[in-house]
Design brief:
mainly beta; seven-stranded antiparallel sheet; globular
Length: 341
C-alpha cells in the first residue's frame, strides 16, 4: 500500500520536540506561532501512536494572501468576532488520525441526484423545504443511502454528498462496506454512490469555514505544523425556504472546480449569472467569488455583505481574488473543507 510520507511529518516533529521547550513557547522559525501546545507524554514513532487531539496540532501564521486580512479577534457592529482555532484544530486532528490509520479513501457522491434518488427512509420527516429528511436532518435530495452494516436491506440514514469515508471491502457486487470519517459508524453503500480514491490520498490542505463568525481561513501542512495562509471575511448560506439553504457543518472533500459556476434564478431554469472560481464540496455548495448577475459580465472583486450575515444559497461567498486563491491552491484529493458553527 502506497503511503504519503508527508502525512507523518507532524507526528515525527511532535514526537521529537526538544525537552527545553515548554507549553506556549514560540518556535523561532520566522513565522508567528499561535496556540502552541507541547505534550511530553506523546510516544516516539517506534511505539504505538496515541490518538491526537486538537491540543497536539501546531498552528503557525504564514499569510500568503493578505487582502482583507482579519485579526484573530475583530470588531463586528457592537460585538467581537473571532477565528475559532480550537474547533479548527480538533477537525484537523481528526483528519490526521484518519490519515495515520491508512486505508482506502472514498467520497460519497450524488450531486444533483446524478446517481439516482436515494430511497425513502422509514420514519422520514419533511423539513421546512417540504423535502424528505432523515432523523439527522439530512435531505434525501442529493444524498447517498447508507444501509445497516449487518444487512443490505435496512436503510438507516442518508449520507451527504462530499462526506469522506474509508472503504473496508466489497460485501456484494453492488454493495461496498465503508467506515465513516465525516460521520460515525460503519455502513453498506451501493457502489454507484461512491467515488473510491484509493490508499495514496494525503489530505494536507484545509479550508475552514465558520458559519457563526462568517469567516474563512486556509491552512496547509508543512514542516510538522499547519500554516495559516489566509484569514478572510465570508458569507455563508442562509435558511430561507423554499430556495436558500444554510451551509451544512461537517468535514467534506473538495470534489471539483469550475472557473465559472453558473446559477439560475430562484424557482426557474433560467441562468441568472455566474460565480467565479468555484470549488465544490457538497451538493451545490461551492466556495466562490462575488456573484455576477447578468447582464453584467465582469468579475466583481468585493461585496460589503462579506463577513456580515448569512445570505447565500448554501455556498460560501468570498472576495473574488480570495476564491481564486482557493481555486488555484485547493486541489481535489488533497483538500478538505471543515465547516464549523
Amino acid at each position: 500500500m502506497k503511503r504519503c510520507t508527508a502525512c507523518f511529518l507532524l507526528f515525527s516533529v511532535i514526537s521529537f520536540i526538544p525537552t527545553g521547550c515548554s507549553s506556549g513557547t514560540p518556535v523561532e522559525n520566522g513565522n508567528e506561532e499561535i496556540a502552541v501546545t507541547y505534550n511530553d507524554s506523546i510516544p516516539h514513532l517506534s511505539e504505538e501512536r496515541r490518538k491526537l487531539t486538537g491540543t497536539d496540532i501546531r498552528l503557525l501564521k504564514d499569510i500568503q494572501y493578505d487582502k482583507y486580512l482579519l485579526d484573530d479577534e475583530y470588531p463586528y457592529k457592537d460585538t467581537v468576532r473571532h477565528f475559532q482555532w480550537e474547533k479548527i484544530k480538533e477537525g484537523i486532528a481528526h483528519i490526521e488520525n484518519e490519515v495515520s490509520r491508512g486505508g482506502s479513501w472514498g467520497v460519497l457522491s450524488n450531486y444533483k441526484n446524478m446517481n439516482g434518488e436515494a430511497p425513502t427512509i422509514e420514519g422520514f420527516v419533511r423539513n421546512d423545504y417540504r423535502r424528505v429528511s432523515d432523523q439527522f436532518g439530512v435531505e434525501r435530495y442529493q444524498s447517498v443511502p447508507l444501509y445497516s452494516a449487518y444487512g443490505d436491506t435496512v436503510l438507516v440514514r442518508y449520507g451527504r454528498d462530499g462526506w469522506i469515508v474509508k472503504v473496508t471491502g466489497n460485501d456484494t457486487i453492488e454493495m461496498v462496506r465503508v467506515t465513516g470519517v465525516s460521520m460515525e459508524g460503519e455502513y453498506l453503500v451501493p457502489n454507484r454512490y461512491l467515488k473510491v480514491w484509493g490508499d495514496s490520498i494525503c489530505f494536507d490542505k484545509v479550508v475552514a469555514v465558520d458559519v457563526t463568525n462568517q469567516n474563512i481561513s486556509t491552512l496547509t501542512r508543512e514542516n510538522g505544523g499547519w500554516h495559516i495562509l489566509s484569514m478572510n471575511p465570508a458569507t455563508t448560506g442562509t435558511h430561507r425556504p423554499p430556495h436558500a439553504h444554510e451551509t451544512p457543518t461537517g468535514i467534506f472533500a473538495v470534489q471539483e472546480k469550475k472557473e465559472k459556476m453558473y446559477y439560475v434564478k430562484d424557482g426557474t431554469s433560467e441562468i441568472a449569472g455566474f460565480a467565479p472560481y468555484a470549488s465544490r464540496f457538497t451538493n451545490g455548495a461551492y466556495i466562490h467569488g462575488v456573484p455576477v448577475q447578468y447582464p453584467n459580465r465582469n468579475v466583481i472583486e468585493y461585496s460589503p455583505s462579506l463577513g456580515t450575515t448569512p445570505r447565500s444559497h448554501m455556498c460560501v461567498r468570498n472576495a473574488s481574488s480570495h476564491s481564486q486563491f482557493v481555486y488555484d491552491w485547493a486541489t481535489v484529493k488533497e483538500s478538505v473543507v471543515i465547516v464549523i458553527d
